Amino acid sequence: MRAILAGPGGNNINLIIAEQVLFSIGFFSLLYSAYTLVMDRELMSDYPSAGGIISRVIRKRRLYRLVLLAGIVIGAVGISDSNPSNSPSTISTGMSLHLASAIIYLVLVALLAFQTLILAKAELRNGGSGYKHSKASFGARYGIYILLVIAQLLVVRESFAVATANDFTAANNEHLWYPLIALPEILAVMLYSIPDLVPMNSELRDRHMRSEVSGLPTTAAQSSERPTSEVP
């Protein structure tokens, strides 16, 4: 689809809308998976939750997912209204909605980066007493650093998306799109797939059940649903 947009078909508004919607759905899965991974590894950690009111809001998984879905819907409507065949007022509204969608994603990415940093500081301050894995693999030993890199890659990706939200020429510039959009996403997916980085569902269930039985406060207790690191 990118190859078609780069060629004569790049002016096809229906194709542009389809590409943007599919791209938003793909980024939804990537961002929510990264977010869930941070929440799950925080759940598996040996220290109490921290970060203040911002972190408490971030840990509300249903809220985070709903805002992500809102970003997709707003972006799709914005792209559709930006059709050159529409009236100037409709086009203006569409461009505003498209920008709002990109800003929503950027805010969510920034919150993810913030919570990842909070988790990293807590692990390092407690001597690396974070997620314990039976294997001494790369993903188990350096998981928190991998999460920090993933968060920064998503920040780069979405910063460019916001900067070019209403500049379709710049947004479709292959010399910018591939290194600032495609490459960060590909690298993030590759890092996410590193073995032993994602806690197993059985571990998460056991931890969640132990916290409910003991009544001890954990980061999961502040979540509104059972944790899992699977892609939605």
From TrEMBL:
Keyword line: Membrane, Transmembrane, Transmembrane helix
Protein name: Uncharacterized protein
Transmembrane spans: 20-38, 63-79, 99-119, 139-156, 176-198
Top-level taxon in the UniProt lineage: Eukaryota
Region of interest (Disordered), residue spans: 211-232
Biased amino acid composition, Polar residues: 216-232
